[in-house]
Amino acid sequence: MSVVQKGGAAVASASRRQFLKAGLAGGAVAAASTVAGGALAAGDPLITEIQDWNRYPGDGVDAFPYGKPSQFESEVVRRNVPWLTSDSISSINFTPLHELDGIITPNGLCFERHHAGIAVVDPQQHRLMINGLVDTPLVFTMADLMRFPRENRVYFLECAANSGMEWRGSQLNGCQFTHGMVHCVMYTGVPLKYLLEEAGVKTSAKWIMPEGADASAMTRSIPLEKALEDCLVAFKMNGEALRPEQGYPLRLVVPGWEGNMWIKWLRRIEVGDEPWHQREETSKYTDLLANGKARRFTWVMDVKSVITNPSPQAPIKYKRGRTVLTGLAWSGNGTIKRVDVTLDGGRNWVTARLDGPSLSKSLHRFYYEFDWDGSELFLQSRAIDEAGFVQPTKDELRAARGDNSIYHNNGIQTWHVNPDGVIENVEIS
Amino acid sequence: MSVVQKGGAAVASASRRQFLKAGLAGGAVAAASTVAGGALAAGDPLITEIQDWNRYPGDGVDAFPYGKPSQFESEVVRRNVPWLTSDSISSINFTPLHELDGIITPNGLCFERHHAGIAVVDPQQHRLMINGLVDTPLVFTMADLMRFPRENRVYFLECAANSGMEWRGSQLNGCQFTHGMVHCVMYTGVPLKYLLEEAGVKTSAKWIMPEGADASAMTRSIPLEKALEDCLVAFKMNGEALRPEQGYPLRLVVPGWEGNMWIKWLRRIEVGDEPWHQREETSKYTDLLANGKARRFTWVMDVKSVITNPSPQAPIKYKRGRTVLTGLAWSGNGTIKRVDVTLDGGRNWVTARLDGPSLSKSLHRFYYEFDWDGSELFLQSRAIDEAGFVQPTKDELRAARGDNSIYHNNGIQTWHVNPDGVIENVEIS
Questions:
Q1: Which UniProt key words apply to this protein (chains A, B) (predicted)?
Q2: Contact B144/A69, CB-based, under 8 Å?
Q3: Option in A65, A68, A239 nearest B77 (CB)
Q4: CB of A326 within 8 Å of any CB in chain B?
């Protein structure tokens, strides 16, 4: 394995101005004109001639009451993998992480996972029932829920199966497919605690079971302690109503815990004194170990990160010089404290720059700027959360749990960068 | 004017649990079943019968590669006012603030203001030039810009003319129209400082003039100090590419300053030693005073707030009991320190609850929960920012500046709530 490391630590400690100068000086003369923008090219028609968009007015403000992306961004979409499941109504599509930046996922690009397709629920007819071990069983209309105090929180939502196919080696070539079962939006909702208090939870209660109104009638068992701690009954994402595929008009938000528990089209919450052992917490969403036993109730999404650019779907276009490496890190335990990156498959690590709001149980954005000399690279990132957990290698995960697992793979991902800028999903030991 | 004030201060100091109990106890018996959700209604078909969405599977994950809102939300759109301008290509549409919550505006609902319609710019052909008082004039492709360090920041963008028609009294009935020229997203971009450093700013430079690539070729003068402080050359909003109507593929972000300066379709930045006195900073975007002189260079958007619910487009549906009042506050000076609200037109003020991230030069969300007895209300909010500025009354603004102004109205807004829950835009003195 070739080692490429161009003074990353020195760059990280230098001032920005120094870095920019170093970047220019470091580039070959031939490359300098594209590294930082060319000097004025007198004959370039893109500079000297008037473009059509400068010559003719465009559409007016009445053209798109609800706006949509540019025609030049038509490839920035969620993608599914048809062979992955037998039917698209019980399948997944993936967030195009390699096309995004920052920490907010636009609503139209949030990955979906359904068990019976997208339910189309009329909010006027929707009801939320709370029953079981409560003093007063209650039924809420959407209008009823609007009368309770609300909270706004940015949370990531990750499917427990995200990166699941990586357990047994590299299979899918692109972070959209290896890590795209995660998104992050600002939710608005009523703390579930207030609704449970309204019904009056009996002292014998220990668990809740939320249930969806779709044709799969999804159910999961959640400890009452978590329900009272930070769960939201949410009706808005990024300011507007939930999207149909995200549970419109109502979903449960279970911060930091696996996405399957965030029941969509939420219609009922039963309060009980023991877990219900439903299908989705016995035959599914448990982790089969090498000895044939299964881990259960593995709810928290562990500390994890991935480099989104460069990555297989986003090769390096410039063959030399300044390169911006960026990615995402997150943890169900809270905030991300630090992200390290390596260009040489783990021989040398440097600390990445975290940028933007650092919010508990939210995505975090990291960057690392370096000069590339065109040699092959083995890119990895490793996140550390505020609880001190360090993202493990895939080998460490397999040593602990065997390789039967599908869920909860938070192992370090490797991208191999060829000298031509083409990138592949690989594993190194 | 009738005075209605139901112990708001006491409610604000009580614990949440006490508040919920008080809310129930305070409601008439007849209202209790709708205040907090009804007791289980055995015969209600919405509870006892299986709905179609529970019976039949929905669309699969391949149905909408880029998602869209629910069919039940078709009225949640930007709206323009056809009589406001002579042509829709030089006009405004408004964010539906009364339909939103939290602080993030979804990209499809961000208000637009154009001077020559929506330019459709090919990013492959787009260039950004830096010229004027620089050591080396430079031209950047979009790919060049991707090689500079990026930042992610949540900022509000407000048109200087927002609430402009309120200077001479109430005219438009709804916060979408009185206050809807504001939105708030997370931008990703390159600090302008890095690009200017790359070109090398001459010591005589004091101003920059960004220029747009659309048919209006919008230009404004901006002090170099601001350009170096926090301006971004942005290419993403809420994670994805800028929308066409927001300047795709590149716009200038000028945090806290009036929206007209946030040049869209950014193609050139000239560096100079004095302002250029362009059309949009002389005949427009100046503030005509009573004595016939005009204030100029009034860039900062002053501390401001508005109650978004209840409001004329969002009347109170329940006629009694628990009501959630909510709204937005923002300031070009930084964060919001406090928001006060009154139910009786200013006789009694209580402190609202700020919720969600408090980010500099970003929208802030506030709430105030109270019990309504059905009497008429005069709702107002008053924001105070971290610099200590207090939102003024409209009369105070007029006393200082006369009533010729269009721009920079940050006066306190009043909504009159009738006993039937219908709400109107009014002024009280």
A1: Metal-binding, Molybdenum, Oxidoreductase
A2: no
A3: A65
A4: yes
Q: Please indicate whether residue B50 or residue A148 has the higher confidence score (pLDDT).
A: A148
In the A/B pair of chains, how many CB contacts fall below 8 A? 413
Q: Does B176 touch chain A (CB under 8 A)?
A: no
What pLDDT is attached to residue A22?
A: 35
Are B361 and B336 within 8 A, CB to CB? no
Mean pLDDT of chain A: 90
**What's the pLDDT tens digit per position in A204-226?**
999 999 999 999 999 999 999 99
CB contact under 8 A, A123 and B91: no
Is B139 within 8 Å of A47 when comparing Cβ atoms? Answer: yes
Give me the pLDDT at residue A138, please.
96
pLDDT more than 70, % of chain A: 90
What pLDDT does A50 receive? Answer: 87
Nearest to A106 by CA among A266, A237, A5: A237
Q: Please give the structure tokens belonging to residue B10.
A: 């006491």
- The dihedrals phi and psi of B287, each to the nearest 5 degrees, come to -115, 105
To test the contact with chain B by mutation, choose from A240, A319, A323 the residue with the greatest count of B C-beta atoms within 10 A, namely: A240
For residue B157, what pLDDT is reported? 98
Q: What is the pLDDT of residues A251-302, one digit of tens each?
A: 999 999 999 999 999 999 999 999 999 999 999 999 999 999 999 999 999 9
Q: On the CB side of B226, how many CA atoms lie within 13 Å of its CA?
A: 21
Query: For residue B289, is pLDDT > 60?
Result: yes
Rounded to a whole number, what is the distance in Å from the CA of A397 to chain B's nearest CA?
30
What SS3 state is found at B97?
helix
Give the best residue of A16, A33, A61, A103 to mutate against chain B (max B CB count within 10 A): A61
**CA closest to A57 among chain B residues:** B116
Residue B377 confidence (pLDDT): 97
pLDDT, tens digit (0-9, with 9 covering 90-100), for B149-195: 999 999 999 999 999 989 887 678 899 999 999 999 999 999 999 99
Q: What is the pLDDT of residues A60-76, one digit of tens each?
A: 999 999 999 999 999 99
Instruction: Give the distance from residue A59's alpha carbon to the nearest chain B alpha carbon, in angstroms.
Output: 5
Chain B contact for A13 (CB, 8 A cutoff): no
Nearest-neighbour CA in chain A from B401: distance (Å): 31
B43 touches chain A (CB under 8 A): no
What whole-number distance in Å separates Cα of residue B253 and Cα of residue B234? 7
> Which domains does chain A carry?
80-295 (3.90.420.10), 304-426 (2.60.40.650)
Q: Which residues of B touch A77 (CB under 8 A)?
A: 65-66
Determine contact: A239 vs chain B, CB below 8 A: yes
Q: Is the model's pLDDT at B73 over the cut of 70?
A: yes
Interchain CB contact of A45 with B (< 8 Å): no
Of A199, A422, A88, A77, which is closest to residue B36 (Cα–Cα)? A199
Average pLDDT across chain B, whole number? 90
Q: Residue B23 above 70 pLDDT?
A: no
pLDDT on residue B7: 27
CB < 8 Å to B151, chain A? 355-356
DSSP state of B98: G
